[in-house]
Every structure is written in structure tokens, then in C-alpha cells.
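Q: Got a minute? One more chain.
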Amino acid sequence: MSLLTLFRSSSPRRLARFIPHHHCPPPALASLATTLHQRATMATGDRPHPLEFLIGTWSGRGEGFYPTIPRFEFFEELTFVKNPAGRPVVVYTQKTRRAVAGEAGEAGAEGSKVPGPPLHAESGFIRMPGWSNETCELILSQPTGVASVEVGTISGTTIAWETTGIVRSPSAKPPHVTQFTRSWIIDPAEKTFKYTFSMATDNTPLQPHLEVVLTKVEDTAQIEA
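A: Always. Here it is, folded:
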């Protein structure tokens, strides 16, 4: 059990047992135990989490398009997990698989689309400075050799993201991405997550690239640190 979990879940009287008595006279001991309990409770979210509407696993399908490539379909899964220590951070993972024609015996009728080979993945963190419910930051890395920072504006259960910085590894292949934006629209009542993703490269101005519709398949509250 972490100290933060202990402070949050224990009453002030129980907390006092963990503080060496020779360092603290009884009145001060009780006051310190109460303060530790209150601060831990505030830090771990007995208040509403600003991104509660995101937390969980979402799954669905999307379509991709861009002037330089053929249109394609894919299956996608997104996962958002609260930081178990109560910090203003959400762990984010994304993975997609190309949609391919199914065969007899697979889920769905013959000829329907099923998940195929892995297509794309990215992972990172959403930071909420000061537990803000107005702005947040998305820090991502991709196996293509690209890492990015985006700033998001929260409006209800919608987040509009825009890049503020992109870096590339020396081996990242051109044409290089120079900017992207995301629009996340979450409907908690219907458990739907719709988003669009726009991208610019060295050769192509900013324009739509992905459209995705997901549904919530699991409520994920926390993971172990």
C-alpha cells in the first residue's frame, strides 16, 4: 500500500498510530494526522475528475483518406486510465488494425470486414496542470519515430487538440508530419466517442485524414503504477 493510499483510506485516528509519538505531542499529533488525511483526499480525487468522461476502453472503426494514399478502413481501440497515485495525469494508449475481408467461419458474414494486421499505434499521457477542467496537454510517442506535444481545450465533453511541438528521430521517413489537430467528441450517455484527425506534411497542407466512431466497451478506473 502506498503512503498516499494509506493517508486517503485511513481515519485521522488510525493515521496517528503511524507517526512516531516522541516527535509530536498528542494535540499536534492529532492535527498532523487530520491534515495528512485531508490533503491525501484532495489529491486523489474525492472531487470530480476533469476527464472522467474519457476513462475506460473504447473500440470501433474508422476510415482514413489523404491526397497521397488510397482510402482505407481500420479497427481501433483507445484506452484511458487514471493515475493510481492520484496525480493529474491520464495514461493513453491507442492501437489500430487494418480492416480486411473476412472468410467463412470468421465473425460476421463471409466478405465482411474483420481486424487484420496491425496498422498504427501510439501511447503517452494527458496532463491536467492544476487539475484544470479547461485545458490539458497530450504528450505522445509513435513507433514511426515521431513524438509530439498537443494542447487541448476542454468544452464539456469535447476536446479540441492542436500541436505545439513535433520532433522526429533521425530515421523517421519523409514526407515529415509538420502539424496535426484532433477533435474528440464524447457522449457519456450514449457511450460514444467520435473524433476527426487532420494532418499536414512537408508536401501537403493541413487537411482531414481520419474519421472514427467508437463505443465504450469497458470502464477502467486505475492500473498499478
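A: Confidence is low (pLDDT under 50) at residues 4-9, 40-45.
Q: Perfect, thanks.
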